[in-house]
């Protein structure tokens, strides 16, 4: 399926539910074509259907091109196959949002967890993030028109309560995401070459991961990522940082 339209394209992981779904819906309503990625085929198709319906409801007609790609992002070989398939079937995206992720098990303290749990969380939360950025973002950087936004977490901050113990694989995977974002921004000219890369902490939000009692709605949790995808970028603005509520936070 090729994307021939002149609408900008956003590729979004985790698009089947939670924060990734909210971002996908909002960008569609803003005029983007979107490519959604998740593991569960049925959830992904249901999400695409809901987004089409929302587009039709808001815009009177749904003209957006919504494509879906299933992949288990825990499997590095499958992630590389996914990247090949995205490149073959889609135009270069202007936005790449990585909103997939898993929480580590409750008792996953450094001295209690095990290789399997460490590897599962690192593979999904950090390794696949590297692979997707490494595979998809070079064309965005070459086009001098790219925004990469990665969902991190305040639990991955090196300051404040960030790395204050417990949930070791999760916290450390997100600290890795923050470091990757900063490093890549420096490698690509800190925005001067039209390529921005940022991390966002959505704060505790009501999703399957955040649970029903979280203080924020999924819409609120997704708002900063949506803003990063479309914000104007002027001289003096920053990239390569962690954002929370559209403000830079130390990590
Ligand atoms: N919610 C919060 O309070 C909160 C707070 C801080 C940070 N975050 C971060 O925000 C991001 C989104 O969180 P969320 O609350 O929206 O999570 P969620 O509701 O649990 O959704 C997780 C998403 O990740 C996808 N995913 C998980 N494992 C995958 C795999 N192996 N392969 C492919 N896709 C996979 C899921 O796809 P399937 O539907 O196919 O399983 C789903 O779309 C995550 O990175 C999370 O760490 C969330």
Highlighted features:
single chain; Rossmann fold; binds NADP nicotinamide-adenine-dinucleotide phosphate; 251 residues; eight-stranded mixed β-sheet; globular; 42% helix; 15% strand; alpha/beta; 6 helices; 8 strands
Structure explained in plain terms:
There is one protein chain. The protein has 251 residues and is of the alpha/beta class. It has a single domain, classed as NAD(P)-binding Rossmann-like Domain (Rossmann fold), CATH 3.40.50. The chain has six helices and eight strands. An eight-stranded mixed sheet has the order 3-2-1-4-5-6-7-8, with helices on both faces. Strand 6 (195-200), helix 6 and strand 7 form a beta-alpha-beta unit. Helix 1 (18-29) runs parallel beside helix 2 (41-59) and helix 3 packs parallel to helix 4 (115-142). The model has no long low-confidence stretch (mean pLDDT 95). Bound molecules: NADP nicotinamide-adenine-dinucleotide phosphate.
